[in-house]
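pasting for the record
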Amino acid sequence: MAHGGGAVPSPVRAPAPLPPRPAPSLTGPEFFDEPLSAMRKTIATRLVQSKAPVPHFYLTIEVDMKRAKELRESANLLDPELKLSYNDIILKACATTLRRHLQVNASFQGESIRFHNRVHLGMAVSTEGGGLITPVIRNADAKSLPEISREAKDLAARARSRKLAPEEFVGSTFSVSNLGMMGIEEFSAVINPPEGAILAVGAVAEKPVVREGRVEVGLRCRLTLSCDHRVVDGAMGAKFLETLKQTLENPVYLAF
């Protein structure tokens, strides 16, 4: 029970259990080789196609997620079955922001740059066995936050169980990769060609911040935009991140 109007402290979350430690092997072969799965072969080919010829550069911004947290808590209070996540809010914010920055919702076509009038959001999902697949939320800019939340959960679940139809993981115009749930604070993602950019999302975490000369506890998230310099230049990428930050810090822009 709280006394004197003080806030009730949040319950301490138990740490995730460590994976079992195999016994040291001092006998038998020194190593073993495992043939690449079809998914790993595809990933290897795509990464070489992306990282080698695509001139990447990176922009990082830190976002105040306090109001996004309030939105999440309010939405889940109104509809407990929704289970709205920070990732859902970021996906919706990206879709909204891409409508304002068509240059980032673009892809390199060799002799031209293609600007997409519809926002098809790819979201990176890790699968059991170490694979990575990117299911697509089509026309994400025309969908409400609850619609994106439900579709994202459905696509991720079916991606992990390998039940996606082939057309459900092709045709994205922009992608989002989130490792925040694993405690990663910041990283740079590799662009999924022919897309012009991908957003890497770090953990939403409490940090000390300075506000009006005082140190306070803030809720922050670092976002890193990987850009194909043939499609997106520094100013374009910076303006996109600026609008994305404003949207996440004022989520009234994500009106249902």
